[in-house]
């Protein structure tokens, strides 16, 4: 065998391309290990396949990908017992940027039976060069299975490489990375194991990392989602769920299926049994893990819409075309079909589980507020409506829109809702008095998203959804359950006096039949945000354009009857008008316009009543 070292130029414009790989193609340096392990796994699978067809010797017992960090020498060696490479293959696969041996091999399997094909990860022939992100020099020693000679490829990633004869006792490949000074963190065994656990935990070939002369397992090696459901116990599902999301509870629902047809994929998803602890508001993106042929690719593929972000799990496909970095996904119809199929499957599971009211209530209390975001964010998802649950002014526990409609009173034309801070506070609101007197049910909405979605959904089963604080609500067509109400006072003189006294602080003063025990209440104009939305906008410093409130008075209340009589005598009511407006604001959970002045007026009114 000749000892001559051959020097070759790379088969591409390497200066610019290698700089792209090292500095732009990957966002995280640790990706290099995923790429090299993926190549090692592919090579091992190829040898296993060729051994079945008689084209290569069988894999040795206990075959594994070994990673050996050497801190004193500042090297990392990645060894595999795979198919190996001949001199020509090293020149072709390593000496030509973006020439993928895996892709060529995959194309050669066109006539092989699907069940006999190995599941190969690499596709683009550039992943190997990610090694130069952490290495100042890379050496590859490889011996092709079935051949006697071995060859060593070496390069500093600048523009050329060398090929020289070498020695290797068994078929396979050793990659030696001479680590850069600023990448010494990767010489720590624990760091390497962490990277493997993150990116390659479910590759079926064992991966070990050497520490103190002992090869320690670094991957679990079992893709649970690839197993038949009949072979998986509930305990195994629960263990994987806890491992996946670092959870401590049991999943409320487990979805495991394989889709075949327009696109093939396997999914194992979990709906948590409890709301995860978040000390601050978390991000709103779905974090389902996308795997391609068991190799973790990303958890940023947005496989579910944000309003299903509580779902955890894995989607694994053979069909997805990736771009060269594997981190960023191409815009592809395949991914869109996977997203649609996964979303529909989750919604189908929720609709099935919703038939058990007690069980579904557990889910709703944890994630109902998130699910309702879908009504606002996706107009095509109005089929979410059957999944919604609400607190109500008329029944205990949770109720659905369909159940609400079934209880609507004769003459009731709309689904009425009231938004606020909490169901307990809403249940005591004077806004409900007239509705309760007539037996009209009102849904009590207390999540922040409740201020938004009714505007987008608009109606359910042809019944409009109306906030009872927005515009004028006419309940005159619905008979009171309490019999005849007290006679209303004539307030024709009082109304313009109150409006004149309040000036531009209200848009209108009018009578209402929504009150029974209270004298006044606030309402929002017919068009624009309701009262709760106005308060949210004001807190955010965006209260402009909300419109002035409407002051509604109860003409049957003793206070209003007395004021109407005083108005007929021409008595000035400016201070009283301001007190009524502040009273209405306080009842709605807002502050008086001038708390100190309001306190003085109340004190004066009380003192006057004692005389």
From TrEMBL:
PROSITE patterns tied to this protein: HSP90
Which Gene3D superfamilies does the record cross-reference, listed alphabetically? 3.30.230.80, 3.40.50.11260, Heat shock protein 90, C-terminal domain, Histidine kinase-like ATPase, C-terminal domain
Histidine kinase/HSP90-like ATPase domain mapped to chain residues: 28-183
Question: In terms of domain of life, where is this protein from?
Answer: Bacteria
Predominant location? cytoplasm
Q: Does the keyword Chaperone apply?
A: yes
Looking up InterPro entries in the UniProt record yields: HATPase_C_sf, HATPase_dom, Heat_shock_protein_90_CS, HSP90_C, Hsp90_fam, Hsp90_N, Ribosomal_Su5_D2-typ_SF
Q: What keywords tag this UniProt record?
A: ATP-binding, Chaperone, Cytoplasm, Nucleotide-binding, Stress response
Which stretches of sequence are listed as region A? 1-326
Q: Which PANTHER family match?
A: HEAT SHOCK PROTEIN 90 FAMILY MEMBER
Biological role = Molecular chaperone. Has ATPase activity.
What family is this protein classified in? Belongs to the heat shock protein 90 family.
Q: What is this protein called?
A: Chaperone protein HtpG
Q: Which species does this protein come from?
A: Roseomonas elaeocarpi
